[in-house]
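Re: Re: token formats

Sure, here are both.
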Amino acid sequence: MTILFAPRLTHTLRLPGGDRVTVRPAYPGDAEILQSYIRRLSATSRYNRFFGPLRELPPAELDRATDADLPGRATLIAEISASKPAMIGEARYAVLSDHACEFAISVADTWRGKGLGSVLVRNLQCRVRDLGIPTLVGDVLRSNEGMLAFARKAGFGIAARSVDPKLVRIVKDISVPQAGRPCEELAVPSLLTAA
């Protein structure tokens, strides 16, 4: 398997309501920021994101999520700037093969319905497409009707079967950029910076 790696970028993106959100890779120093974010999610949000009850990430999972040097995988942190940056979402991806990349996202409960999930998924699609991977896949609990509706709206289809009867696999061909704003225009032009 040959994997090409695009440079790790920090993007400042604009939400539909005008808020600016910074999306950047997580690093080892972000462990407590990420753990605090997970703790602040509602019990339902944590269950839907991690497929079971948990209050925080186990140490090994937290280490994986903040290890910026793992080939073919990354955790992206979405933050807003106030007096101190606040984490409001996260996206993770892991390259499965030359043809598919698995992803998962979460949005802070207070930021739902503001377009953050859509912006994160579009940004993630651009990053994964830059790696040369044509398909984005994710597992979703069958009971997570909100995420399934979001996935359909974002252009994902449902795979014929899943390995777990509790889960549904969502799939999207991202090999060709879709109509709308190109990846370069998703970021606020004057705020695009390399990490």
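Second one below.
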Amino acid sequence: MVRALADCKRQGYASGMSSAPDIVPDSQYRGVLTVLPPFLRDLALLARFDRPIGWWLLFWPCAWGLFLAGGIGRWDMILWFLAGSIAMRGAGCVYNDIVDADLDACVARTAARPIASGAISKKVAWVWLLALCSVGLVVLLQLRSEAQLVALGSIALVAAYPFMKRITGWPQAWLGLVFTWGAPVGWIEVNGFERLAPLGLLYAGCWAWCMAYDTIYALQDREDDAMVGIGSSALSFGAHVRAGVIGLYGMALACWVGAVWLMRPDPLALFALLPVGVHFAWQAFTLETADGASALARFRSNRFAGALMAAACFVIGAAAHA
């Protein structure tokens, strides 16, 4: 890892890293993490337990699929999905950091991550990854067999994701497939493989939502990503990032309108999506694309957007299956 940092300095990346003081590093920790022993703290940081926004974003599509399909009273499954989201988001972060260790060392926001900084070895990281996956296995066993098959279908997508930034300027498009896979799992847990048209529109909207918020997130790393030579939608959109985010959020809403209409063809039902649309508009039109703090705040606000969408799916699912 020291060699990786030295390579960054020789290639001039270090100067680019130091020129971004408004970027929030991933090495910050607060609360209970401050009292943990250093080794346990590094494991927690590696799984991003200090940054719950990630598992909220993984969890919400699970809840949307479950609620819209009519699983209104399945609060036990909501809790299982939440536990699985925390564990598997952590496992995904560990795997991503193992693969991206050399790249992380060259990016200001990620240079102090446990593997990139050398605080945790890759061997230890693999053991931690397997431990987190064992929690995911327990959650998997709570699902009906059809939902289990769908959940397992995400493995190849997850495994390929860290390599997308090396081969495409649009890795967020792949992340949109991966990070919203819970929507099909939640739907199929309730309905099996029946009535897939609303699910298709729900999932397409989830994909656009994820691509939009991760484009916002990637604004923090544009300078370093360009110097290191990896792709991101924030770079690919160029001067049209705001327009791209608006278009993606518009696509998400249009798909969700279609899903709602297929579930309950009543114009009044569409009003349930109005709070989500207002929130998306606030994000897009107040975003300062050159300000890392602004991008991070709007990215994190998608936890609230997810709650608004969950409320809409709950209301619509309850009405459609009354």
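Confidence is low (pLDDT under 50) at residues 1-6, 9-24. Residues 37-317 form a domain with the Tetracycline Repressor; domain 2 fold (CATH 1.10.357.140).
- S.
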